[in-house]
Amino acid sequence: MAWILLFVAGLLETGWAIGLKYTDGFTRPLPSLLTVLSMVASLGLLGLALRTLPVGTAYAVWTGIGTVGTALLGVALFGEPATAARLACIGLIVIGILGLKLVA
């Protein structure tokens, strides 16, 4: 169950990272509210996952999921470059996340 909570927390981290772009410096009320709610929920679920998972592993996986999700959505939503090198590096992060899951 802790891994599921951690995965959802990572998805929510992606949500708030992308949400920051839509807040326009926290000047837009609805995107700002949704972004802050996503932040709180993400940290809350991370905290719950830390009840049973090692902090180093959980934090690395949480940030890794957020990083991969944010990078991929940056490409899809904002036209950021999807170069082979960038995608390869994102792939390395995914491998790292899977590796941490397998050894934890």
Task: Report on this structure.
- The chain has 104 residues and is mainly α.
- It has one domain.
- It contains 4 helices and no strands.
- The chain is flat.
- The chain starts with a helix and ends with a helix.
- It is a multi-pass membrane protein.
- GO terms for molecular function: transmembrane transporter activity.
- It is found in: Cell membrane.
Task: Give a short summary of the structure.
The chain is mainly alpha-helical. The chain has helices at residues 2-23, 29-49, 55-78, 84-103. The chain crosses the membrane at residues 33-50, 57-78, 84-103.
Note the total helix count.
Answer: 4
Give a short account of the largest sheet: none
The whole-angstrom Rg is 14 Å
Number of domains: 1
Bulk shape: flat
Q: Supply the helix-strand structural class.
A: mainly alpha
- Mean residue pLDDT: 97
What share of the residues lie within helices?
Answer: over 70%
Family: Belongs to the drug/metabolite transporter (DMT) superfamily. Small multidrug resistance (SMR) (TC 2.A.7.1) family. Gdx/SugE subfamily.
InterPro entries: EmrE-like (IPR037185), Small_drug/metabolite_transptr (IPR000390), Small_multidrug_res (IPR045324)
GO biological process, one term: xenobiotic detoxification by transmembrane export across the plasma membrane
Keywords: Cell membrane, Membrane, Transmembrane, Transmembrane helix, Transport
